[in-house]
Amino acid sequence: MNVIAAMSGGVDSAVAAALMVEAGHQVTGIHLALASTPDASRTGSRGCCTVEDANDARRVADVLEIPFYIWNFADRFRAEVVDEFVAEYAAGRTPNPCMRCNEQIKFSAVLDRALALGFDAVVTGHHARLDAGVLRRSVDEGKDQSYVLATLTERQLGLAVFPLGEMTKDEVRRQAARRGLRVADKPDSHDICFIADGNTRGFLGRHLGTQTGDIVDDETGTIVGRHDGAHGFTVGQRRGLSLGVPAADGKPRYVLSLSVVDNTVRVGPGAALEVECLRTGPAVWHTDVAMGESFDCIVQLRAHGMTSPATITAYESHTQIALHRGQRGIAAGQTAVFYGGPDADVVLGGARIESADRVSTKVASR
Predict the structure, then answer these.
(1) CA–CA separation, 41 and 19 (whole Å)
(2) Which of 61, 95, 178, 241 has its CA 20 to 30 A from that of 344?
């Protein structure tokens, strides 16, 4: 195959490209320039997509003796990932920008350009398996990234290659070291790439401004603190609340809900965070699902962990999720990914969460 290898400058994408070269494919490396401001791409910034990352990717391409180019998608990234991230927080939701980047940049903008230039597929260093078109978890469950790929379309998955799905992260690093790649010991990135200093609240404050509001105890209705904008909080948050009135029982309080209408943050005990029933928007399905009928599966509610057995009822416009085991800290804007199969490692589909209900009975469909 004649493929594009998306090279972030990290060890995973480097080894993915190397494996494709050694398998006899014609490989061209590309690095995505996504930063629209100097701070986001400055030397020493946190996250990915930095100047050092671009240089690391180029050095790997030199070692592999493959062509290498930088593709600038900064405008589209800003419009479809950064601006949407800000808009979601402004609406009181908690988005996952990595999922949006996969959907709109890596497997849409990049894929479309690659196909237009005559390439056959896009190769990435994601830790996930594609088995005859079926998306499955990586063998390394601790590094599995099938969650952030779950909302890709069948077309996008059909034109993707994930060479690392059968490898653990330790093995990936050994493979890189064996090939003399300098990124073998490079730390993984865990930050949102477009927030250079890692300060999400500060980033949102610069984009959305400040608006003083109340922090209210959900049980008593008492105002227990003030804040500079509800967008600076997430459901389940415990730290940084700056509450002026301690709880009567002396236990910690957590953010239970956000209201952008009246700019109010409601807090309460940890037990009040537990939800059992969720509603999502329309799902992207990778298997045949009978609309209006229920089935059992495993649902994952965050990129890392938080899984629960659940009963799913699918409709064209939404899905209803009845968790068999309550979970805490679930917010609108996050994504629910459904897993099935004998080992519960096959991605059945995924959908964005619209609401979470703390009622212990299944939400009736509408």
Answers:
(1) 28
(2) 95
CB 172 within 8 A of CB 11: yes
**49 classed as catalytic:** no
- pTM for the model stands at 0.90
Among candidate residues 48, 49, 98, 101, the one labeled active-site is 101
In whole angstroms, give the CA distance from residue 83 to residue 74.
12
More confident residue, 133 or 183: 183
Whether 193 is a known active-site residue: answer yes
CA dihedral angle for residue 289, residue 94, residue 217, residue 211, rounded to 10 degrees: -150
Helix, strand, coil % over all residues of the chain, rounded to 5:
30, 30, 45
Rg (CA), the chain: 22
pLDDT in the model for residue 305: 80
Give residue-wise pLDDT tens across range 77-96.
Answer: 999 999 999 999 999 899 99
Cβ neighbours of residue 89 closer than 8 Å, sequence gap 6 or more: 95, 204, 208, 231
End-to-end CA distance of the chain: 47
Strand residues in the chain grouped as ranges (E): 2-6, 26-33, 68-72, 121-123, 128-131, 134-137, 160-161, 213-217, 223-227, 254-259, 264-268, 275-280, 284-285, 294-300, 307-314, 319-327, 335-340, 346-357
The span from the CA of 162 to the CA of 106, in Å, is 13
Confidence of residue 136 (pLDDT cuts 50, 70, 90): very high
- Catalytic residue from among 48, 49, 98, 193: 193
Enumerate domains of the chain plus CATH numbers: 2-185 (3.40.50.620), 210-272 (2.30.30), 274-357 (2.40.30.10)
CA-CA distance, 99 to 102, in Å (whole number)? 5
**φ/ψ bin of 316: left (φ > 0), alpha (ψ from -120 to 50), beta (otherwise):** alpha
Closest CA to 26 of 117, 92, 93, 139: 117
Q: How many CB atoms lie within 10 A of CB 347?
A: 28
